[in-house]
Write a structure and sequence with these properties.
Low-confidence stretches: none
Helix content: under 10%
Order of helices and strands: EEEEEE
Radius of gyration: 13 Å
Number of domains: 1
Largest sheet: 4 strands, antiparallel
Structural class: mainly beta
Mean pLDDT: 94
Shape: globular
Strand content: 35-45%
Number of helices: 0
Length: about 80
Amino acid sequence: MFTIDQESGRHRLIGLESSQGETPRNFNIDPSGNFLLVANAGSNNIVSFRIDQASGRLSPTGHSAESPKPVCIMFRDV
């Protein structure tokens, strides 16, 4: 996890979070900006994390879905 300095644009590491699986292949932030989903190809699962809007830190939601070899997380407009 990183913060971005608004003046310089520089990134600063603020922490690490496990993908809760093996071989994370892709991740994406949902359209609301509140959740990050990770596709773990090695463990055949997609795991969700809540994004703290103030700090940018992630916390596991405890929810995951089985998916055979997930490689890409995409959201479609409805």
